Amino acid sequence: MKKQFHRKDVADIMDSVARTYSEFNYNGHMEELHRLHKDAFEYAIAAGPHKWSRVHCPQRRYRLMTTNVAECINSCLKFARQLPMMTLAEFIRNMLQKWFHDRHAAARSMHHQLTDAAHLVILKRVKKCNYMTVNPVDWNIFSVKLKGNQWTVNLHLKTYTCNKFQMDHFPCSHALAAARERNLDFTSLCADYYKRETLIDAYSVPIMPVGHPFSWVVSSDIAS
């Protein structure tokens, strides 16, 4: 949006409409975008809201709003791209070998059921619970109030009226307030994605050295 229309106000609204969890807020932001810049509105629609809108994404995002892995790799290869092809390939393999080792070691050193990053988010959200009023509706459903606003949390279905709980698969502060009312373990409300064991598994297969070409075992059909 910044490159296409060179307007910060348009980019700011686009950021809000992309990140919102609510269909109601999405529609409101899109109406604002349409009033501000019709071409930007049509550009966003043509790009496909399911590709950039959190509330319309057909897959789980797990709180992430970027899939820009390719650009991250490119930045790491800024100077290595000048190397000969085989040297570049070995550079990439060696880089990934180090990344997998370091991340696997870091994951194994964590002391909580959740990853360190997820654990810190939980701690920050728990602090907000002290300012909330929680009223049970039944064993699983709770009304949570804060500053005149009211939300409904279902701990069994892991849903919340603003959609944040069910879309992130990670408890918001209102869900944590309800869970504390029932003395539930907060970890039980988190998807496996956020857990330490999942992170360990993600980096459990090491990237092995390939050795010198003279040591390679090449099948006859490939060699020919």
UniProtKB/TrEMBL annotation:
Pfam families: SWIM. Residues 151-183 form the SWIM-type domain. Keywords: Metal-binding, Zinc, Zinc-finger. SMART domains: ZnF_PMZ. The keyword Nucleotide-binding does not apply. One of its GO terms (molecular function) is zinc ion binding. The keyword Zinc-finger applies. This is SWIM-type domain-containing protein.
